[in-house]
Design brief:
- It is a single chain.
- This protein has about 375 residues and is an alpha/beta fold.
- The chain folds into two domains: about 180 residues, FAD/NAD(P)-binding domain (3-Layer(bba) Sandwich); about 140 residues, D-Amino Acid Oxidase, Chain A, domain 2, CATH 3.30.9.10.
- It contains ten helices and 18 strands.
- Strands 1, 2, 8, 9, 10, 11, 17 and 18 form an eight-stranded mixed sheet that branches.
């Protein structure tokens, strides 16, 4: 399990929910490999569609990897400056999050995001604004002084800024715990510590064999290590991201802040956190001291209120980076009953609900209303 700020800010009852494991059954209608937010969301929407015999497998605890190590950012507009299928998925996921927030408590809010710009006259900025609006998202151009008025505690005056007023944030681990508790009440089993060794003819795990009618691989950066037993290896690899948080302080940040290097936000419990490096180091765990120093230097320049405050948590996680920068969602050609939901890179939490619903619809109904042809696993040959 991650030692991130998210796990430090949940009650012990929710931690126990995420660590509790059920006995491995012999059979299941649907097996989901990966107990991150995408795997859990898939289980949720399967049960909403009437599928009850669902088993979620993971080698560790629920939310134990990238889903428990991210920034909790719902940057639907800022992260989707294009008109393709991912932008449409972001819009759909935004609507699904509103519905989830009406049912579960997970510190969900839409305070907006401010992107600080280094060059007010960069023509690429105007192009981004136009594309963002054409994709159906809100964005406003703001002067440097305007950014200071939106964030009175800002320690610099940027050249200019972009305001994404509808972008939001959440506590991903609280959401995961709420969903796991709900799903257990509907009969979904969570078999943790059940590392998957191979997929055919049965799912061979460290706890025994499981025969499933349908199988969903939602294992993030570990997905190729699981599917290679089938001779199909999508170009997904880990990209380590490092983050840090300082001890709680009174309300200081009113928006999420994004720079050309990192991003920063404040938790409901008061901690200010930031970072988000992209380190191509394989599955090398830990945090790099030089990277942490850079994060802290920029954090203190942007948010002077954190200067001198002790760090309360430093952590890292492995984002699943796909070679063409698009997630891999859908059935695997030539592999009957096998589906994949992986490769979301920095958009896993943001797209978790819509990804889960797409996979659930494909399994329960045989089709999805969303356009996902460009995201098909079939674009990568065996």
């Amino acid at each position: 399990m991650q030692d991130s700020i998210w796990f430090q800010t949940i009650p012990s009852t929710q931690r126990r929910v995420l660590e509790q494991s059920d006995p491995l059954p012999k059979t299941a209608d649907v097996a989901i490999v990966g107990a991150g937010l995408i795997g859990i969301a898939t289980a949720y929407y399967l049960t909403e569609a009437g599928v009850r015999d669902v088993c979620v497998l993971d080698s560790g605890a629920a939310l134990g990897e990238a889903s428990g190590a991210n920034a909790g950012g719902l940057w639907f507009a800022q992260q989707n400056v294009e008109l393709g299928p991912v932008a449409a998925l972001a819009a759909a996921s935004s609507r699904l999050y509103d519905l989830l927030a009406g049912r579960f408590a997970f510190d969900f809010e839409r305070p907006g995001l401010i992107e600080l710009l280094d060059d007010a006259d960069d023509p690429a900025v105007r192009q981004r604004v136009d594309l963002t609006r054409e994709a159906g998202f809100q964005v406003e151009e703001v002067s440097g002084r305007g950014a200071r008025s939106l964030e009175p505690g800002l320690g610099i005056t940027p050249a200019a800024a972009l305001l994404y007023p509808s972008d939001g944030k959440l506590h991903p681990v609280k959401l995961g715990a709420e969903l796991v508790k709900h799903l257990r009440g509907r009969g979904v089993r969570f078999c943790l510590g059940a590392e998957v060794r191979s997929l055919r003819p049965s799912i061979d795990t460290a706890q025994g064999l499981l025969s499933a009618g349908k199988t969903v691989i939602a294992a993030g950066a570990w997905t190729p290590l699981i599917t290679r037993s089938l001779g199909w290896v999508p170009p997904v690899k880990p990209m380590r991201g490092t983050l840090a948080a300082v001890s709680p302080l009174p309300k200081t940040l009113h928006h999420t802040l994004v720079t050309s290097k990192y991003y920063y936000w404040q938790l409901e419990s008061g901690e200010v956190a930031g970072g988000g490096s992209v380190d191509d180091v394989g599955f090398e765990r830990g945090v790099d001291a030089t990277t942490l120093a850079r994060i802290r230097e920029e954090m203190e320049a942007l948010i002077p209120a954190v200067a001198g405050r002790p760090a309360c948590c430093c952590w890292s996680g492995f984002r699943p980076y796909c070679a063409d920068l698009k997630p891999v969602i859908g059935p695997v050609p030539g592999q009957d009953g096998l589906f994949v939901a992986a490769g979301h890179f920095k958009k896993g939490v943001m797209l978790a609900p819509v990804t889960g619903k797409i996979i659930a619809d494909l399994i329960a109904k045989g089709a999805t209303d969303l356009e996902i042809a460009a995201l098909s696993p079939g674009r990568f040959r065996s």
